[in-house]
Amino acid sequence: MEAVEPISVKPFPLFSLPAIPFYDILKEMRSVDVFALTLTSKKSQNCLRKQMYLQMNVVKNRWAGMELKYKKTDSKYLSISVNSEYHPEPTNTWKVGKYRIPIKDGGDYINFIWKHQIETHQFLAQAICEAFRIKNLSFHVEYEYGYEATWKLFDNILKFRNHLKVPIFQFKITSLYLNMSIYSDMLDRLSDTPRLIITGDSYQNFTYDHQRPYPKEYLEIDHAEWIRLKDLMLLLKCKQVRLHHVMYVTDRDWNTFLVKWMEGCKLVQINIYGNVIDFDVILGKIPRKPNKNFWICRDNMDVQLENCYEIEREDGTKLYVAKDDHNLILFNNKE
């Protein structure tokens, strides 16, 4: 990878220092190939210990990671610790530095976070993207303390995402506090995101606005109880899909879905776990041949799938349709 030219030092708009030593770190790491930038927010029970993370995942030999941690220790200072970890061996790690930066606005801690966090991350993220010419951006949101705070964080991160001129790679949200409004708005506003992963609460009565597309590259929903046939048909426009706990799709619906898949579509990788009653209804008249070589892991044990069939499209793409107890499993690899 060609060396990246050192970036010019820019004034930091929110703090009194003209620049952060972070730029020296960027210059030292110019040869590192950065493939993703991840923004993660975690909140402890004590709000004074709340930290904001801006993390870079980098590739150099096997694995390395770089992390910026923001923590307001009192009303006047914001502590920034920069950790750089390199893992050719599990024990080989080191820290880069730790800094305390004065805050001009010494207001309430929570107010400071919600008032300034997005602008702060925008500035740092832009610097990182420029320095390493990042083209793929990944967001991972973890939040466990309240619906209002979860909504605020989600809304702010979307604003942050829209501010950066970088193609969005993935948005993953893990939250115990996803109400129907947040869930609906999330799918609506993230319809242009190529990769979307949702793990959290399930809403059986939720309906998706079919005027908007699903993510085109990858969609994973941990609790997909709300998925119906009309949703499955839209998923044929995706390239990769992974759904769990599909409950309200009938056997005839599955047959309709498989017939469409056989006709040819963009969906080439699929892993769906759903209910099944009559396996013969699901397969119908679709040409297939039995396959006895597939195993799944259940309760930390490998179990062979007795009822497994292989179907193949004209383009050579294969899909394996299996029955495990009352679960229908669709997949096209041996994982």
Automatic annotation (TrEMBL):
Matching InterPro entries: F-box_dom, F-box_Sdz-33
Ranges where the F-box domain occurs: 11-56
Name recorded for this polypeptide: F-box domain-containing protein
One Pfam family hit: FBA_2
Highest taxon above the source species: Eukaryota
